């Protein structure tokens, strides 16, 4: 039994580099940067000269559009490609905690991590003072 040398588009073998493989011999694959694997990374040569499980497929990586509670992004897409950048802003009364922008990475994650919009603390107006007026000083 000899299985043919398996090839996958947008990926490569990380184990084995021969023209034929013997029964029960395993081969391992990985996808090129910017692609994610659908299926199994390891396949085994079978008695009928096929590979099982079937060879994986490397598909273009995407990042899912992040949800930001009490805020929004400048993008309208449901998915983004690697190296796409989106910018965040918070609704009035909320402040951004984290980076205001993030980039889609080759592995389908956002970096830096998606920020959160936190409610701003609001103090009540100062009480009225007879025969006086308040002055505001910022503490840093």
Automatic annotation (TrEMBL):
Which Cys pairs are S-S linked? 31-58, 90-117
**Which InterPro entries does the record associate with it?**
SEZ6_CSMD_C4BPB_Regulators, Sushi/SCR/CCP_sf, Sushi_SCR_CCP_dom
Q: Does the keyword Transmembrane helix apply?
A: no
The superkingdom of the source organism is: Eukaryota
Q: Does the keyword DNA-binding apply?
A: no
Which SUPFAM superfamilies did the record assign? Complement control module/SCR domain
Look up the coiled coil feature and give its residue ranges: none
Q: In what residue span(s) does the Sushi domain sit?
A: 1-60, 61-119
Q: Which UniProt keywords apply?
A: Disulfide bond, Receptor, Repeat, Signal, Sushi
| Name of the featured protein | Complement C3b/C4b receptor 1 like
> Which classification does the entry list for the species?
Eukaryota, Metazoa, Chordata, Craniata, Vertebrata
């Amino acid at each position: 039994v000899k299985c043919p040398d398996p090839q996958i588009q947008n990926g490569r073998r990380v184990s084995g580099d021969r023209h034929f493989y013997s029964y029960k011999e395993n081969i391992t694959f990985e996808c090129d940067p910017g692609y994610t694997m659908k299926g199994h990374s390891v396949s085994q040569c079978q008695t009928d000269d096929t590979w099982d499980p079937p060879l994986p497929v490397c598909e273009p990586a995407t990042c899912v559009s992040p949800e930001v509670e009490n805020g929004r992004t400048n993008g309208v897409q449901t998915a983004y490609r690697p190296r796409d950048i989106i910018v965040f802003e918070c609704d009035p009364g909320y402040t951004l905690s984290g980076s205001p922008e993030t980039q889609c990475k080759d592995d389908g994650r956002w970096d830096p991590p998606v920020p959160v919009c936190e409610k701003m603390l609001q103090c009540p107006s100062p009480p009225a003072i007879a025969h006086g007026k308040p002055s505001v000083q910022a503490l840093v």
